[in-house]
Amino acid sequence: MLQRLRRAARLFAAGLRHPLTLLVFYFGMLWAFEWTFRAWEIPDFRGPGLWVSFVFCIPAALLLWILSTSLPRRANRVIAWVLVLGIAVLFGSQMVYHRIFYTYYTVYSAVNGGQVLEFINEILFTMRRNWVQLFTLLIPLILWIPLQTVLCFDRRPPVRQGLGLVMVGCLHVLCRLMLPIFGTQDFSPWDLYYQTVSIDYSMEQLGVVNTMRIDLWRLVTGFEPEYEVEAPPPIPEALAPDEMPDKPKEDDTTTEPESDREKYGVNALDLDFEALAAAESDETIANIHRYFGSLEPSSKNEKTGLFAGCNLIWITAEGFSQYAIDKELTPTLYKLANEGFRFTNWYTPLWGVSTSDGEYVALTGLYPKSGVWSLYQSSDNAMPFTAGNQLRSLGYSCRAYHNHTYTYYSRDKSHPNLGYDYKGVGNGLEITEQWPESDLEMIDVTTDEYVRDEPFHTYYMTVSGHLLYDFMSNSIADKNQEFVEDLPYSEGPRAYLACSIELDRALELLLERLEQAGVLDNTVIVLSADHYPYGLSLEELSELAGHDVDPDFELYRNACIIYKKGMESETIDEPCSSIDLLPTVSNLMGWDFDSRLLMGRDIFSDAKPLVILSNRSFITDKARYNTKTGELEPTTDELLPEGYEEYYSALVSNKMAYSTLILDKDYYATLGLEQ
Q1: What is residue 634's three-state secondary structure?
Q2: Do residues 205 and 49 lie in contact, with contact meaning Cβ atoms separated by under 8 Å?
Q3: Is 139:35 a contact under the CB 8 Å cutoff?
Q4: How far is CA 449 from CA 452, 513, 605, in A?
Q5: What does the pLDDT read at residue 240?
Q6: CA distances from 272 to 276, 280, 365 (A)
Q7: Per residue in 579-617, pLDDT tens?
Q8: In the chain, what is the straight-line distance between the N-terminal and C-terminal CA atoms, in Å?
Q9: Where is the chain membrane-spanning (predicted)?
Q10: What is the pTM of this model?
Q11: Which of 158, 400, 403, 410 is the most buried (most CB within 10 A)?
Q12: How far is Cα 195 from Cα 191, in angstroms, rounded to an integer?
């Protein structure tokens, strides 16, 4: 019996030393990583991505095998260690990143994101909290440690390696040919492989290794999707003209909004797009000219210039949410939200780069480009429509502040280009070193710099509302813990509200300083979120909401503040979002801008509501469309005309595409609109 066991052990060891065993291990390792990652991170575990990632593991495993059997044995073993550790780190880091930021990092972010180490405490906390998930994910790495001592790393002949590379190529082509089996619609595996850039959907539909390989290739080659820029989307004949936002001029049979147009005019610059297109040698630019020239600008209205000549304080509040507004707990936020314009149907979508993209959308009126830091990418572009550049040209003093590292997301490059004299921690903003830093302190040390320098415009990017939401690692939550101790919530929601108290006290101090300086009556305050507080789980957000929060639409519902002391309060019920903030403020301030060249709309104009989420789901005043389910759900009793979903889906695609083209082509400079 003992001899049989010894013989079996020898045979097993001999089998492990067979050259093909290493190939089998690589395939099993990749598939185990992909399978476990999907089990923990991807809601639709059994979707097409499960099988797509499986088949793509075959050529990937073969390539790893070739790479670790091409040199002498010792060198091959080192290469194998590097490959296995690198892949394990890739999967583990993506899991941790996703559980902190609710998105995945791209190669671009990894190359430019060394500053993420500033959040090392949050990273370590997330790793400890999710140690079970990480342990199961890294089981292949644990198995590798003993197996690598017996696996065969012998050098294979060059001819066989060459044939192996040919086989890798053939298998890869076969995998690509399989993609249309799952359809070619938007966000299908085929679409994400060849056209659409979306890191979150790609992880779901193509797998982690495949997604990162494609992302690296796109970054290296400068890949850009092919945009349909020849014409606006077709208008279904069944749709009434007053239901068509951004409708081409030739179909403009509108009668209802004519009163405003005749009385006030339109928000448009003197741009002859037809002549620009005729004179343009670059066909892509010419097509962009034609597209924008085909759109009807929105009307001016009775709100145009309502705040003309006023000072402006604009705040992007980290992780701000409507759940932070409470009459007793945050009375200043409550006052501003209820005594200004009251938005009951406001949305703050979550974009790929979270805070940075949230800023970009609100400050520029453009959608971010997937896979890059759009705000940073705009640093060398003409950005004539931003509040800073608009007001600087009118003689305002324009300053911006951020109470965290001034270089984070390269704001030291983007914000001066937006028109600001910029200060953050490290280049002139002196506040207590802690995490997160205090919004109250930032207001305290900065107001004297501008309150007596009228007319002024000041922009704040806050940080006190940043995750993690607990009372141990978050200094602001700990500072205000006593005020939330008796609230009927778990620790996460209470810690979040404690952070919101700091923002509320900062606003209270801001109003006091403006009042003391005698300028409050002539100052407009605008506040919106960069994103919802994704540091709270859906269950924790549901605690604050008092009901189960819908993850597809309600999750992104938020609040926005536009307030001026003594103004007449007004409620806005129609759907709107952060993309609408710049055109709305531009109209209220009476600036010269072209509504066709911003992707949002002035909410007081005749342009129809359209809220676009990052996955291209959308909300109108009559319906909402979910790209995950492909369902169009009416939100009123009106019968939706034929072609409604197709029209708006095309419009959504165009808005996303032209936002990217404006960024990539520095289109405003092409128009001669230098700031």
Answers
A1: strand
A2: yes
A3: no
A4: 8, 11, 36
A5: 46
A6: 6, 12, 22
A7: 999 999 999 999 999 999 999 999 999 999 999 999 999
A8: 87
A9: 20-37, 49-67, 79-97, 131-151, 163-182
A10: 0.89
A11: 403
A12: 5
